[in-house]
């Protein structure tokens, strides 16, 4: 079985400040981890993924995520938030043997000007 | 590439009517997924196909829902008869082989369904 938790429904951050959106996961075996972003009235867009290798993964729009195996976490980060980063963010996980992704419940990020 | 294409973008219908949602995956992708998104339940996987064959339909809520993929470039999700609780945004996504290491999914813009 595989599962993912996003403990925060809502994250607010001031423009220019660093942001973190949290994600923890549970899988059997090695995880494949993903972050997606959803803007209003749009489909989900892929941001970044961790497959293997360097624990720090860099993705689109200046986002990065750090894979932490001991804490089973894959938090999304950005050094300096923009108002345009305001959106709904989804973490997703797949075990190596699984065929489908399991998505978290989503975190609404609001960047305040 | 135009990305995943879904039609219609919006559908309003009355309870009891048949609804058909359509999806064209990205060319060359051989896995296709149908999701439903609601405020209450978040994003739910309904069914997915590999090489046009349904692999897992355990997420399909009930017999009123059916999905087909007659060829690699087209899929439909049908609800018959529709009910108000089916109101949601339905997303189609495609990817390279679903079991492939780390293949991300590409989502369409969604169909917003309202059943009155």
Task: Write up what this structure looks like.
The complex is a heterodimer of chains A (113) and B (116). Chain A has 113 residues and is mainly beta. Chain A is built from no helices and twelve strands. Chain A has strands at 3-5, 10-14, 19-21, 24-26, 31-38, 44-50, 56-58, 64-68, 73-78, 87-95, 102-103, 107-112. Chain B is mostly beta strands and 116 residues long. Helix content of chain B is 0%, strand content 53%. Chain B is built from no helices and eleven strands. In chain B, the strands form two sheets. In chain B, strands 2, 4, 5, 6, 9, 10 and 11 form a seven-stranded mixed sheet that branches. Classes of the chains: A mainly beta (113), B mainly beta (116). Chain A binds chain B through residues 32, 34, 36, 41-46, 49, 51, 90, 96-101, 103, 105-106, and chain B through 4, 33, 42-43, 45, 48, 50, 55-56, 91, 93, 98-99, 101-102, 104-110, 112.
Structure characteristics:
heterodimer; A: 113 residues; six-stranded mixed beta sheet; 12 strands; globular; B: seven-stranded mixed beta sheet; four-stranded antiparallel beta sheet; 0% helix
Number of helices of chain B: 0
Number of strands of chain A: 12
Number of helices of chain A: 0
Major sheet details of chain A:
6 strands, mixed
Number of strands of chain B: 11
N-end to C-end Cα span of chain A: 41 Å
The computed structural class of chain A is mainly beta
Molecular shape of chain A: globular
Q: Rg of chain B to the nearest angstrom?
A: 13 Å
Low-pLDDT residue intervals, each spanning 5 or more residues of chain A: none
Biggest interface, and residues per chain? A-B, 21 and 23 residues
- Tell me the overall shape of chain B: globular
Order of helices and strands of chain A: EEEEEEEEEEEE
Q: Uncertain runs of chain B with pLDDT below 50, 5 residues or more?
A: none
